[in-house]
Amino acid sequence: MQLEEAVSNDATGRRVPPGRWPILIGQAIIALVGLYAFLGSLSLGLWSSLGPGAGFFPAVLGIFLMVLVALWFVQERAKPTVETGGETFDRAQVWAVIASLVILAAALPFLGFQLSVFAFLMYHLSFRARIGRVKAIVISLCGSVGVFYLFTTVLHVTLPVATLPPLSMIGL
Fold first, then answer.
1. What's the CA gap between 39 and 3, in Å, rounded?
2. What are the b/e assignments for 10-49, b being 16+ CB within 10 Å?
3. How far is CA 161 from CA 67, 102, 112, 122, 171, in A?
4. pLDDT, tens only, 9-45
5. Which of 31, 35, 98, 129 is deepest in the core (most CB within 10 A)?
6. Could you tell me which residues come within 8 angstroms of residue 55 by beta carbon, excluding any fewer than 6 positions away?
7. pLDDT digits (tens, 9 = 90+) for 71-96
C-alpha cells in the first residue's frame, strides 16, 4: 500500500477526490471551534438564578455549530459539491451587508430592537434576496418581534427599546 493511498482514503476506504480535502478540513475546523466553544462554556455556568448564565449562549452556539457540521458532512457524502470553476465574488453584496449592519447598530438605540431588526430583515429579504413580500414580512416579524419576546419574556434578557417618544409610547 502506498503512502499516498493511505493518506487520501476516508473512513469508508474509498479514495477522497483532491477537491474535497478543503471541504473536509473546513468541516473539521468548524467542528473543533464548536467543541471548543461548548467545552469552554461549561466552566462559565449555563444557568443562574436570574436566567441564562454566562456560558449558556456559547454552549448553544457550540452545539449548533457541531450539529450543522454533522449535517453538512452527511449532505456532502450524499451529494458532493460540484466544482464550477470558482465562485464569483460580489463586492456589492459584501458592502451592502456591512453598510446595513452599521446602520442597524446606529438605529438600535433610537428605533429599538423590534423596528430596527424588522427593517434590516426586510431590506435583505426583499431587496437583496428578492423573496416575495408576504414571505419577507412573515420572516421579518418572526425575526424581530418573535425574537424580542423570546429573549425578554423567556430568557429575561433585555434588548434595546425605542427611545423616540412616538415609538416608546406604543411599546416599541
1. 35
2. eeeeeebeeebeebeeebeeebeebeebbeebeeeeeeee
3. 33, 18, 4, 19, 8
4. 455 666 666 667 788 888 999 999 999 999 999 998 8
5. 31
6. 40, 41, 42, 43, 44, 45, 46
7. 999 988 877 666 655 566 678 888 88
> Using CA atoms, how far apart are residues 117 and 138, in angstroms rounded to an integer?
13
Is the pLDDT at 5 greater than 80, yes or no?
no
Identify the residue whose cell numbers are 411599546.
171
Q: Classify each residue of 58-87 as buried b or exposed e, where b means 16 or more C-beta atoms within 10 Å of its C-beta.
A: bbeebeebbeebeeeeeeeeeeeeeeeeee
Residue bearing the bigger pLDDT, 112 or 84: 112
Q: Kindly list the domain boundaries of the chain, sorted by start residue.
A: 3-78, 91-169
Q: Which range, of 26-30, 50-54, 67-71, averages the lowest pLDDT?
A: 50-54
